[in-house]
Amino acid sequence: MNKRKWINIISGYSVIYTILTLLNSVLYLINGIYEDPSGNWHELDRAVITLIGVAAYELCVKSSVKPLIWRYAIAYVPSQLLAFVYVWLSGFREELAKTAYRDIWINFTVFFILLCFVSMVIGIYKKSRNKEIK
């Protein structure tokens, strides 16, 4: 991979992490919670889960599997399992919430669907742009 590709991946990761962190903070404030109950571990957990999601997105983009739904499934299943393993491992550090696995499933799935939608829209845009050029 060239340097420009790495810069794009790191920039994308940073933007996504920032958006997720801001969204989380706003939701806490709306609910009257003024400090993150899990503190710094929660930030690190979000960073790892975001990294897993970005890696899954890159797997989708780089894979040549057809049809598209198979490509997404091949990226989603192992990355979701990896997220579950991470949650399980974090249970050794602190007690998990009763809904921890459901929460990670919902959050990761929504995150993954959004990334797949963005990837699909970009792909359609590039195809239509290439047709216009020819």
Please name the defining characteristics of this protein.
134 residues
Describe the structure.
This protein is mainly α and 134 residues long. 81% of the residues lie in helices and 0% in strands. The chain has helices at 3-30, 39-62, 68-90, 100-133. The model has no long low-confidence stretch (mean pLDDT 86).
Rounded to an integer in angstroms, the radius of gyration calculated over CA atoms is 17 Å
Structure classification: mainly alpha
Sheet with the most strands, sense and barrel status: none
Low-pLDDT sequence parts: none
How much beta, percentage-wise? under 5%
Let me know the number of strands.
0
- Helix/strand order: HHHH
The helix content, as a percent range, equals over 70%
Q: How does the overall form come out from the CA principal axes?
A: globular
**What is the CA-CA span between the terminal residues?**
28 Å
Structure annotation, total helices: 4
Q: What is the residue-mean pLDDT, rounded to a whole number?
A: 86
